Backbone:
């Protein structure tokens, strides 16, 4: 027998409050003394637990930086990492997700500094390696969730069910509206009617998550992914429609209203795109939207006022989530295959330079971000999807690497919270 | 304590009355740990407890020091109550979650506290991607079956003594279910089920055996014992 619970150990849990679970209750004892004087065995007395409060929260308290901080969703290790973007340090990391074994795949992340909470989408990605012969493996389609995290400990505090393959997660500036796209490539394929191949955009009322009506769905387009929001409360959403070679303009205040789709030229057939718009990032003055097309390997600038696309700006690799400089005079575009970072002059609609990375520097750059300091650009590197990766800190002028921060496996999103005023 | 005093005095006057035994929260928790009342399986079905059989290979971790650990499930969970509730919902068929202050949860916690241990996280290596294994020693596989499989699946071939219909007779039942699979794939379904349990696309209530508690060599021996080569 293993050394374990020892019923003979006295005094470990002496109850200070005695709970009498006996047939001889107090009233009876005061009266006839019932059968306690007989030879019958008395009922056992349950001693109350008198130790420290049960199930204490042992998760370490994270010291939230007063300056800029970043949260990284590590898609391949089911964790979120908190970064101090002024000290260039990792503050902490914690597991997220609902399934204790499967990869929940936290995919992209949004943060609300004032409310001290973050939102990440659990996408349950199909394993890249075949896990076994069973048919259910790798082809199962699990519904996604948005998990709400408390920033003090990165502990999950709430969750909302969404649809399969949640893609981008974006929070309005006022923190009241959360949008989730569904990058559902399986749904995009097949011989179904176009509307059935289109996926929904989830518009979530953050303040009323517990209500059944908290999630409104807007049928958007085929395989929608990157989202950019216009306005303090995000009344208009721009959604990159990967599977339909289009940009969807969604009125988030009226989910019953059909989105307006603006196509990129002729485009491919729905489900068989030739451009593949994947990411959409709005310029600081909200006049231009940078749409990254991963299939045609170019970036298109969408003029918000004119509702029209400019000419394609070719990039040497597939472009992902770009970052605008504060003055909107430069656009920094992470590219993959070959891996690098392209610097675009939006006014001239041309690539000024491209810095390439080898695998040791930054494998598969996925997203670029600025914080408060316009001199420093943060670049999320997906890595090899098997081992821990990093976020690079680059000099925005020279693109020289100033530092790097270790994160988890397959990071694919960074939410930057600007420092407290 | 003061409230209990008058009754104590009264009872003391009964010279023939035996003292009522006291049951601590930890003792009640130990009983809960070993009991399947209200659930499909007891905690002790998968975790070694006070009455652990030293000869068994348990899929669940030894819980000594569990209340002091930083994480569970190989780092995927960092909240003990959630880890308990995961077990209850996934394996034990409990209809609801325990909250931290309800009596059963408190008693179970008291029991876990009583288990001394270092409080370090227990390695739990999930083998996510499985592959075929070389043949092993059938005679050793018989011992592996006794240690790791028999408690739930009962006697070889017949399933006599199994924990219930949910644990099929081995190896016949899974082989019948996958009769059309080629030989190597039929082996793989055993590897897959042992490594993934109820997870990664599978359903059911079987716990996964981590690489730490059951080696590939053990599995090879088991497959040979099942005459799958």
Residues:
């Amino acid at each position: 027998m293993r050394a374990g619970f020892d019923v003979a150990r006295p005094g470990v849990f002496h109850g200070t409050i005695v709970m009498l679970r006996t047939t001889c209750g107090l009233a009876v004892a005061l009266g006839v003394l019932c059968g306690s004087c007989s030879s019958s065995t008395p009922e056992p007395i349950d001693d109350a637990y008198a130790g420290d409060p049960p199930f204490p929260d042992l998760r370490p308290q994270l010291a939230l930086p007063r300056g800029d901080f970043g949260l990284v969703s590590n898609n391949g290790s089911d964790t979120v990492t908190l970064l101090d973007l002024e000290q260039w340090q990792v503050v902490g990391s914690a597991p997220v997700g609902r399934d204790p074994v499967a990869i929940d795949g936290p995919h992209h992340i949004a943060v609300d500094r004032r409310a001290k909470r973050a939102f990440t989408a659990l996408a349950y990605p199909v394993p890249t390696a075949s896990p076994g012969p069973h048919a259910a493996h790798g082809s199962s389609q699990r519904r996604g969730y948005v998990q709400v995290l408390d920033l003090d400990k990165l502990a999950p505090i709430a969750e909302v069910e969404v649809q399969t393959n949640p893609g981008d997660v974006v929070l309005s500036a006022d923190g009241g509206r959360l949008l989730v796209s569904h990058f559902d490539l399986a749904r995009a394929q097949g011989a179904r009617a176009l509307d059935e191949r289109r996926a929904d955009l989830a518009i979530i009322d953050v303040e009323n998550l517990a209500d059944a009506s908290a999630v409104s769905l807007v049928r958007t387009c085929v395989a929608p992914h990157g989202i950019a929001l216009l306005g303090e409360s995000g009344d208009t959403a721009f959604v990159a429609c990967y599977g339909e070679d289009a940009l969807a303009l969604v009125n988030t205040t009226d989910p019953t209203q059909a989105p307006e789709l603006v196509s990129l030229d002729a485009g491919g057939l729905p489900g068989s795109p030739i451009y593949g718009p994947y990411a959409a990032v709005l310029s600081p003055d909200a006049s231009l939207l940078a749409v990254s097309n991963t299939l045609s390997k170019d970036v298109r600038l969408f003029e918000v006022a004119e509702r029209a696309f400019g000419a394609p700006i070719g990039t040497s690799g597939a472009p992902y989530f770009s970052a605008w400089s504060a003055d909107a005079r430069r656009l920094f575009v992470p590219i993959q295959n070959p891996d690098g970072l392209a610097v675009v002059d939006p006014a001239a609609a041309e690539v000024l330079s491209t810095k390439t990375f080898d695998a040791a520097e930054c494998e598969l750059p996925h997203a670029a971000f600025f914080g408060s300091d316009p001199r420093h650009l943060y670049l999320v590197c997906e890595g090899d999807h098997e081992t821990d990766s990093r976020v690079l800190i680059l000099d925005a002028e020279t693109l020289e690497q100033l530092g790097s921060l270790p994160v988890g496996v397959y990071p694919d999103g960074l939410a930057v919270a600007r420092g407290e005023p | 304590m003061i409230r209990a005093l008058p009754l104590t005095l009264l009872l003391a006057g009964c010279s023939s009355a035996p003292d009522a035994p006291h049951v601590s929260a930890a003792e009640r928790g130990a009983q809960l740990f070993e009991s399947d009342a209200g659930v499909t399986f007891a905690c002790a079905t998968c975790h070694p407890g006070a009455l652990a059989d030293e000869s068994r290979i348990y899929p669940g971790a030894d819980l000594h020091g569990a209340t002091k650990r930083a994480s569970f499930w190989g780092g995927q969970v960092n909240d003990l109550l959630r880890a308990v509730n995961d077990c209850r919902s996934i394996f034990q068929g409990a209809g609801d979650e325990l909250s931290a202050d309800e009596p059963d949860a408190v008693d179970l916690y008291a029991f876990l506290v009583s288990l001394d241990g270092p409080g370090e996280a227990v390695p739990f290596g999930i083998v996510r991607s499985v592959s075929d294994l070389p043949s092993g020693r059938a005679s050793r596989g018989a011992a592996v079956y006794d240690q790791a499989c028999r408690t739930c699946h009962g006697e070889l071939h017949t399933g006599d003594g199994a924990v219930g219909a949910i644990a099929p007779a081995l190896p016949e039942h899974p082989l019948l279910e996958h009769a059309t699979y080629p030989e190597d794939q039929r082996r793989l379904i055993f590897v897959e089920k042992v490594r993934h349990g109820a997870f990664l696309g599978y359903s059911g209530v079987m716990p996964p055996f981590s690489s730490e508690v059951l080696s590939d060599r053990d599995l090879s021996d088991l497959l040979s014992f099942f005459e799958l080569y």
User: Anything to note?
Assistant: Chain A has three helices and 32 strands. Chain A touches chain B through 64 residues (CB under 8 Å). The longest helix of chain A spans residues 26-31.
